[in-house]
Design a protein that fits this description.
Blueprint: H1 19-22, H2 25-37, H3 60-73, E1 78-88, E2 92-101, H4 104-110, E3 114-118, E4 121-126, E5 152-159, E6 162-166
Parallel strand pairs: 1-4
Antiparallel strand pairs: 1-2, 2-5, 3-4, 5-6
Length: about 190
């Protein structure tokens, strides 16, 4: 069978037949198109965390508060962390923003699994799953080039539909000491 000349494809609106379709080329074209449109199913492995969305973003109130925190810390070579702690379902959430001097060993020990960037600054995100999950991938971290004496911790509290930003915040994943409904264990002292 001689090769098909693409010039032989005649438009329907001129009242002629489509030579390409009559010679079986349409079936071949459709088969190739379907082959490109369908992808093989991904093989899922037990115990591996897969993401549902390509991108997720912070709530605008949290992002704006985080920007204020970063501006106040004003440290380009520090470690920035955000901890998200749901205290009572979705109605009460504590976000802790932390800025620490850069330490390669700190990052390797604390095993951050996620990060986001805000105005070019990398912020490591902790949700509480870091102790239950790990990656066998090794990431390269630079050694610190400059010493910084900074240690800042703020809390953003979402409660009753409102956000409150507190400087000199409480430790992440621990109840806020001045909230009446939190019960502090008897062996813990609050100064």
């Amino acid at each position: 069978m001689p090769g098909l000349d693409l010039r032989a494809i005649i438009k329907y609106n001129e009242g002629y037949y489509d030579v390409f379709l009559k010679k079986g080329g349409g079936f071949l074209f459709l088969a190739v198109l379907l082959g490109f449109c369908t992808s093989p199913e991904k093989e899922f492995k037990n115990g591996i965390l897969y993401q549902i969305f390509d991108e997720v973003q912070l709530n605008s109130n949290v992002l704006d508060s985080l920007k204020i925190f970063i501006d106040s810390a004003d440290c380009d070579e520090c470690i920035y962390n955000i901890y998200i702690d749901k205290v009572v379902d979705k109605s009460e959430v504590i976000y802790s923003f932390e800025c620490l001097p850069y330490s390669k060993s700190y990052l390797l020990e604390n095993n951050p699994l996620f990060y986001l960037t805000v105005d070019g600054i990398r912020i490591y995100l902790y949700t509480g799953i870091e102790d239950s999950m790990f990656s066998e991938n090794v990431w390269s971290l630079p050694d610190s080039s400059k010493y910084t004496n900074i240690d800042m911790l703020w809390n953003l509290i979402y409660k009753d539909g409102r956000y409150t930003l507190r400087k000199n915040g409480s430790t992440p994943f621990f109840p806020l000491a001045d909230e009446k409904h939190f019960k502090i264990p008897p062996n813990i002292k609050i100064n």
